[in-house]
Amino acid sequence: MPRTEKQFQEMRERSRQNILNSALKVFAAKGYQETSISDIAIEASISKGLLYNYFSSKEDLTRSVMEMLLIELENMTRNVESEKDPYKKLRKLIEEAFDAMETNSDYWRLYSSFILQPETAKLISPEFISSLERIFNSMEKIFSEIGVKNAKEEAKIFGAILDGIAFHVMLEGESYPRNKMKKYLIKKYSKKNL
Amino acid sequence: MPRTEKQFQEMRERSRQNILNSALKVFAAKGYQETSISDIAIEASISKGLLYNYFSSKEDLTRSVMEMLLIELENMTRNVESEKDPYKKLRKLIEEAFDAMETNSDYWRLYSSFILQPETAKLISPEFISSLERIFNSMEKIFSEIGVKNAKEEAKIFGAILDGIAFHVMLEGESYPRNKMKKYLIKKYSKKNL
Amino acid sequence: MPRTEKQFQEMRERSRQNILNSALKVFAAKGYQETSISDIAIEASISKGLLYNYFSSKEDLTRSVMEMLLIELENMTRNVESEKDPYKKLRKLIEEAFDAMETNSDYWRLYSSFILQPETAKLISPEFISSLERIFNSMEKIFSEIGVKNAKEEAKIFGAILDGIAFHVMLEGESYPRNKMKKYLIKKYSKKNL
Amino acid sequence: MPRTEKQFQEMRERSRQNILNSALKVFAAKGYQETSISDIAIEASISKGLLYNYFSSKEDLTRSVMEMLLIELENMTRNVESEKDPYKKLRKLIEEAFDAMETNSDYWRLYSSFILQPETAKLISPEFISSLERIFNSMEKIFSEIGVKNAKEEAKIFGAILDGIAFHVMLEGESYPRNKMKKYLIKKYSKKNL
DNA sequence: CATGAATGAGCATTCATTCAT
DNA sequence: AATGAATGAATGCTCATTCAT
Question: Which one of C117, C123, C187 would you mutate to disrupt binding with D, by most D Cβ within 10 Å of its Cβ?
């Protein structure tokens, strides 16, 4: 009995996801430039040829990996929406950001380096920027709800603080006082101080 | 008759600077990995072989380029020391940072990507981190002079804001409201508001 | 439909042998240092890239070529073992050595130069020395069987004569009186004269 | 007062010898292929340019170095001529050969590898072969004086033994029983045994 | 005579991509 | 769909040789 069209599509999708996850894993571990198509095929336990059946080039694969990361980033901010209290939203944002630095530092590093390298930057910018705008907008709304003046600017500063700290953490590693800064930020952006 | 020792040294120094500047230019335009030694030699209008007369490897050249950038960065913060008034110091820091984003955005991008890519990061980290620490320390002193509580944390936040904004500017380019943010930050960190 | 595992293995083995034989040929004709990977690839009618699919480096390829030669050398002495009479063994050794000088002189030259050049010597020495020892041991046994006093030293001298002549043949080429020397040696090491 | 033509010639000759000795030293230490013109110029404490004032190419320099070695080799055998007794001549030849293996092993190795590598071999063969013939002839004369039958063949065998042992010593290094073999050969080629 | 900066062809090696099966 | 052998262009680097001074 031949497989149905649907089964077939599911198989393809699973295979595609397998490749994407493998690529992300190897990219994060070795860096983008140091990762060869071969490395990814091995990690995914498939042949190089098959990989080209799913992605037309290394560039195409890279673009898709970056889209994955983008979606994850958006999910992170979406989680925050479940909170009602805007102060709690801010607190959750801070906590999520610090958590990500801790547990997914390789991905953050990959993410940032994708953005900063001309070759990979050109693969994502448009989507990324609109995604970033959505995130800033939702932050701005939070500050508005709280009643902060200049909510737009404060949202941008808030975002810059989180990204700037992430950058410093990537740079200094363990020696950066992550915990102290997290607590300090939570206090600074609490009801009492805004 | 052979050239004098001094003549040779001058030739070497000129040639070395020519190569360093060319490398910086091409690295900034294309990114580190996409730049070949050939590209740099062409930009410098010399042969590949000659480049190796001055730098023993691509890594050596890269390290030297990064040292140039580091010195420039330190100069930037040193300028600030000429001010007496701590509020003016903060203002000058902000202005210098925004100026750098504007005029040297390629170099900033290169600089950040150097730090984020495993392969290039290892070439500079130690010096960079100690340089960063000096900068943070001088920021902390400024906040102390002003009398801000938690000067250490506030200095880190101040630095994170500047680097975070630089990151967002690299990302969004012209669409980022640099001027508005600069003014807002200057006001936020003025005597009236601290 | 993909090729079967077995088909791939056969392809690989054929290709590997092709490369090894081509390498031996070019090494023998031009010498190790003067032979480029390109030369070998051209001789083997494949791309340079493919060569690296089979051998991880020029060094690796060279090592494999030397192993081939070593095996051939051992086979030569092993043939001798089939004889029962120790005098006939000596005679056969002499004959085989002179045959090798004649038919495989390039390989002998390559072999010797491999051993004498620091860079290639390090690739084979251990195996070669133990192989040489085995050969000397079996020669010593022959002389012992014959009842020669100082069998060990006489074996070493016998080996030195063969290698020394080979060296002179490489040097003088056709002008060296190989045939006369072969006959003379056979007589010298015959039952009548020992 | 300008230098006389003669003084001038002497200076050039001294300079030339300096380069030749430096080249020999570096060739012997690092191997021919691994030695660059730069290495030799540094060893000779002169500039690369000046070296080309004395030798037109690396090949030319190499040829001259090999001629030096050849002359040294001939001197070695000429020393032997001072002895009257042919048995003592043989003994002295053996002793000189073993001494050379011990004290000048690097030069021997270089010498042999020169002969065995196609590229360098072509630079010397004709002179070398006639030199070798002279040496064989003088050996033949010694055996004739002693009254050995087949003096020509025995001379060739004697020479082959010495070269063959030198080859094995280069190969096995310290583990080769040089002293035992030297003594054994001296005895074997003494009045009592010939 | 003497210097060493400069050249350029050549080398070993890598890797994204193609393709016969 | 699936394989991995095969390609070829590109890369970092070396070095004999030349030449302006």
Answer: C117
Same domain, C113 and C155: yes
- Which chains neighbour A (Cβ–Cβ under 8 Å, 3 or more pairs)? B
Q: What is the pLDDT of residue A152?
A: 96
Interface contact flag, B156 A33, Cβ < 8 Å: no
CATH number of the structural domain spanning residue B1: 1.10.10.60
Same domain assignment for residues B63 and B45: no
Give the integer Cα–Cα distance in Å for C103 and C31.
Answer: 18
C75 and C138 housed in the same domain? yes
Q: How confident is the model at residue A65 (pLDDT cuts 50, 70, 90)?
A: very high
Taking 70 as the threshold, does the pLDDT of residue D71 lie above it? yes
Tokens representing C84 are 């029962």
Euclidean distance between the first and final Cα of chain A, in Å? 66
Q: Flag if D113 and C117 touch (Cβ within 8 Å).
A: yes
| Residue contact B164–A163, C-beta within 8 A | yes
For residues D80 and D23, membership in a common domain is answered with no
Residue written as tokens 């130069």?
C113
Structure confidence at residue D107 as a pLDDT band (50, 70, 90): confident
**Other Cβ atoms closer than 10 A to C173:** 12
pLDDT beyond 80 at C135: yes
Q: How far is CA D134 from CA A192, A193, B21, D77, D141, in A?
A: 106, 104, 64, 10, 11
As a dihedral over the C-alpha atoms of residue B150, residue B155, residue B158, residue B164, rounded to 10 degrees, the angle is -120
What is the distance between the alpha carbons of residues A123 and A57, in angstroms, rounded to a whole number?
A: 13
> How far does chain B reach from its first CA to its final CA, in angstroms?
69
Q: Helices A86-103 and A178-188: crossing angle, nearest 10°?
A: 170
Alpha-carbon span D35 to C8, nearest angstrom: 43
Residues D51 and D63 in one domain: no
C84 and C29 within one domain:
no
pLDDT given for residue A1 in this prediction: 46
| Single residue among D13, D29, D55 that ends a domain in this structure | D55
* Number of structural domains in chain B: 2
Q: Exposed, middle or buried, A88 (CB in 10 Å: 0-12/13-18/19+)? A: middle
Residue B133 in tokens: 């620490």
B128 pLDDT exceeds 80? no
**Same domain assignment for residues D19 and D109:** no
Nucleotides on chain F that have an atom closer than 7 A to a protein CB are: 1-21
pLDDT of amino acid D125:
64
Q: Where is pLDDT greater, at B179 or B115?
A: B179
CATH number of the structural domain spanning residue A145: 1.10.357.10
* Partner-chain contact D116 C116, CB within 8 Å: yes
Helix D105-116 with D151-172: angle, nearest 10 deg: 110
Max avg pLDDT among A4-18, B94-108, C55-69: C55-69
Q: What 3-state class would DSSP assign to C56?
A: coil
The model's pLDDT over B13-44, given as tens digits with 9 standing for 90+, comes to 999 999 999 999 999 989 999 999 999 999 99
**What residues of D are in contact with residue C119 (Cβ under 8 Å)?**
31, 33-34
Mutate to test the interface with B, among A106, A133, A157 (most CBs of B within 10 A): A157
Residues B66 and B143 in one domain: yes
CA D50 – C1' F6 distance (Å)?
Answer: 49
In the predicted structure, residue C60 carries a pLDDT above the cut 60:
yes
Q: Which domain holds residue D172?
A: 57-193
